[in-house]
Amino acid sequence: MNAAVKSRRAKGEQTRREILEAALRLIVRNGHNSVTHRAVAAEAGVNLSLTTYYFKDLKDLIAQSFELYRSKVEHEVESTWEKLLQYMQDAPAESLLERQQLRDHLTKFATDYVCDMIRHRPSGLVLEMTFFYDLHLDPEMRASAVQLRRRFESGFEVFCERLGSPVPQADAALLLGALQRLEYFGLTTGEVNRDEIYAQFKRLLTCIMELPSDA
Hints:
- Keywords: DNA-binding.
- This is DNA-binding transcriptional regulator YbjK.
- The chain has about 220 residues and is mostly helical.
- About 80% of the residues lie in helices and about 0% in strands.
- It folds into 2 domains: about 1-65, Orthogonal Bundle (Tetracycline Repressor, domain 2); about 90-215, Tetracycline Repressor, domain 2 (Orthogonal Bundle), CATH 1.10.357.
- Helix 4 runs parallel beside helix 7 and helix 7 (about 140-160) packs across helix 8 (about 170-190).
- The radius of gyration is 21 Å and the shape is elongated.
- The N and C termini lie far apart (about 65 Å).
């Protein structure tokens, strides 16, 4: 393959990605019903014909934009879990005091994460809500949404197993549910009560780790 062909392919892939990114920005600002060929072309700054050249229809464009979003999220989630699980592996957690300290560190980590998502990365939450609770109703996209949800759940299950939970699957569902509820509440109301978020995560982790309730 000569240099000219490689250059054209690279440019084409860049244009395709710019169109997908533009579609995601439109979804964040105005919902997925705002995604039209003309709106996406204007947002991406490309010729209108390119949106139909790279995507057979709007459904295909939205579906592929979700795949781009999903790939980004999966990478971020894997990186976050890798760092957190490594910390848990290295942290001493034999005595009651050490387990309490581990719980407090994990509580702070979860609280920081939720507050950061609400304050600095709300677009990610909007996309998550859209694809989990709206677009997943499309039969062709449901499998992708379920797969991403399962990736979230599996990470929490490993986390709960490492904490010694006797029922890691159930505890993982509780933690993930609490995380998303707090995120979505903050996103929709604009309220970020750090102390309340911390208290809820601390209570959940206290139960999961079977620590004294007054710890």
